Amino acid sequence: MDPLLVEYLICPCCKQGSFELSVEETFYPDGDPANRAQVAWGTLVCSQCGQTFPIIEGIPRLLTSEMLSEYDGTASVFASTDKLPWAQPLSADKSKEVMRMLFIEGDPNVDGSRSVDPGSEEWVARLTEYWIDGCERSAQKYVRVLGDSGIERCNSILDIGGGGGGTAHVLGQALRAEIVVVLDLELRYLRMAKTRSPVIQAVQSNATCLPFKSKAFSLVVSFGLMEHVPWRPFLQELARVTGKTAYLVYGPNRMFPYDGHLHAPLVTWMPRPVALKFAYLWNQLLGIGWYSRDTLARISDTLHYVARYQVERTLTEVNLQHANVFEKFIEATITSDYHLDPTTDFMLRLVDNKGIRKMVITALMVLGCEPLCHFLCWPTESQNAHHG
């Protein structure tokens, strides 16, 4: 952890006190003493309420007792793997080793019903492609959207629910940020982020109780998290910590008739018990067989289907002006290097047809049923913040 991160933090318990840092052990990124020393082990003590939080493996664990009670010892939240080379930058040679450590060994969340055997070389290769190579490659589309919106430089970036840090890493480099922070609850993802780049500041905490000062970050991003958390408190917290600009993406939109989490159509319109039964039968009918009934129920428990108009109304209530940038996202996505595995040549030609694409995008936006909702937001008091 960079000692400078303390300037951005606030106690998640009292939401008033700043932290006093006690350092037990430090390390140098890349092993180079020319780099600023980072905190490997230490403690953070709140100046107001006296609550103490540990720094373990360079990651401040800002978890309150309420957060701990919600997750009842989930292995991926609390587990520690001493073998992980967390203080070293991630290279191609280490990628498969890291995937095996984080997702295979003793991981109760790996579903044995998947078509590829957990632990096999093919399974590890798929994880590596998604979490290491694919994650950073797909993040380029967000850079394009921000660039098309006039955002080319940000001093500080926060990625809420940033997972393994791929998107944050790409944004930090593209926007020449001085500090890049990834917040996530799952420890294995944060440790992947630290392994990817020691420059990334990883913080373990809850997205609905952000341990950061108000207006702390010039750019706050969140991609694909809001549908998994209580969304109104999340938006309130996102608005609170946004200094200039926020880029919010969630999906599926409640008005869109398909959910990629459950791999089934129409479930966004159904009552939850009906949706679960239908999703299971649909998966079995198509021979997907990825998820058992219990796994589908576990996924569904964390899903919130929210319509675009609901989010727009709430953003206004929390004093965030917003622009719908779904069309910019599609234009940034339709590039020759992004279609890694097109289903058919016909589909690729279809999306490459600008006239057809424009017609479909316009219809989706008018009806309010885009599959993914993309908002560029800025505080009401700084109307031009999203332009620079």
Task: Name its key features.
single chain, 388 residues, seven-stranded mixed β-sheet, 14 helices
Task: Report what the structure shows.
The chain is of the alpha/beta class and 388 residues long. The protein folds into two domains: 3-138 and 162-206, no CATH class; 258-377, no CATH class. Helix content is 37%, strand content 19%. It has 14 helices and 13 strands. It has helices at residues 65-71, 75-78, 92-104, 121-138, 140-148, 166-174, 187-196, 231-241, 272-286, 293-301, 308-317, 326-333, 345-352, 354-367; strands at residues 19-27, 38-46, 52-56, 59-60, 156-160, 179-184, 201-204, 217-223, 242-250, 258-259, 264-265, 320-324, 373-379. The strands form three sheets. The protein has a seven-stranded mixed beta sheet, with helices on both faces. The two termini are 29 Å apart.
In DSSP terms (H or I, runs of 4 or more residues), the helix count works out at 14
How many strands, which pairing sense, and closed or not: the largest β-sheet?
Answer: 7 strands, mixed
In percent, how much strand structure appears in the residues? 15-25%
> What strand order characterises the main sheet?
7-6-5-8-9-13-12
Question: Which structural class matches the secondary elements?
Answer: alpha/beta
Percentage of residues assigned to helices? 25-40%
* Global mean pLDDT: 81
Low-confidence stretches: 72-87, 105-116, 336-344, 383-388
Quaternary structure type: single chain
Shape: globular
Rg estimate, integer Å:
21 Å
